[in-house]
Amino acid sequence: MSNDRSYLSALQDYYTRHHAFPSYSSIGTLLGLRSKSSVAALVARLKLGGYIESTPDRRIAPTRRFFERPLAEAPVHAGLPNPVDDAPADALTIDDYLIDRPSQTVLVRVKGDSMIDAGIFEGDLVVVEKQSTARRGDIVIAIVDNQFTLKRLDLERGQFILRPENKAYPVIRPEGALEIFGVMVGLVRKYN
User: Fold this and answer.
1) Residue 161 sits in a domain of what CATH number?
2) Fewer C-beta neighbours within 10 Å, C or N terminus of the chain?
3) Which of the residues 9, 36, 47, 114 is marked catalytic?
4) What is the pLDDT of residue 176?
5) Domain hosting residue 23, numbered range
6) Burial of 151 (0-12, 13-18, 19+ CB in 10 A)
7) Is the predicted pLDDT of residue 1 greater than 60, yes or no?
8) For the sheet containing 139-144, what is the strand order?
9) Residues in a beta bridge with 159
């Protein structure tokens, strides 16, 4: 399976670049497999492993398992170093980790710096589960005066307010309606 793991990695990279699988002949070229039978055997092993499947029109398509990424057995310490554990890792998809209800989940790109003290920066993607209710302390996307904003929901004198996580910004005390669009359940940040 060690060669299959490297073949799978190459196919994952190809899929990320092209959003499609290569043809059988292109798989051979991409992976350096010389015969059609070795490509067919690899495809069969990847199907058996649950990484790919055939569509009704006999094309190759990814399964959820295709998008799994290795999860290290032990967490990494942000303090003093500790020994590396070479034990085999579990795997998970980002969706499995962050998203409980796909039909109610959206990704929203953050603009501005009003939430930096909560570790939310401009350009981040917040994972938001759409719902009209939230609890005090939740980070929410709210609609105030027909505008969306990302803030922490809080209570002040029995009224809901929206608190920024940056002292340079004022607390939002809605005079009219405050509507909850959704609650933040995760964050994705890409480092260049």
Assistant:
1) 2.10.109.10
2) C
3) 114
4) 81
5) 2-67
6) buried
7) no
8) 105-109, 125-130, 178-188, 139-144, 147-156, 159-163
9) 156
Residue-level pLDDT at 83: 63
Structure token pair of residue 70: 């290795």
Does 93 map to a domain?
no
pLDDT tens digits, one per residue of 86-130: 555 677 778 877 888 878 889 999 999 999 999 999 999 999 999
- Give yes or no: residues 61 and 118 share one domain: no
Q: Considering only CA atoms, which of 149, 142, 108 is closest in space to residue 128?
A: 108
| Residue 139, burial from CB neighbour count under 10 angstroms (0-12, 13-18, 19+) | buried
Given a cut of 70, whether residue 134 has pLDDT beyond it is yes
114 as an active site residue: the answer is yes
> Does residue 90 fall inside a structural domain?
no
pLDDT tens, 152-190? 999 998 899 999 999 999 999 988 888 999 999 999 998
The active-site residue out of 9, 38, 103, 151 is: 151
Question: Residues with Cβ < 8 Å from 44, sequence gap 6 or more?
Answer: none
| Residue 88 within a domain | no
Same domain, residue pair 114 and 184: yes
Q: Rounded distance, CA 90 to CA 61, Å?
A: 23
Judge whether 38 counts as a catalytic residue. Answer: no
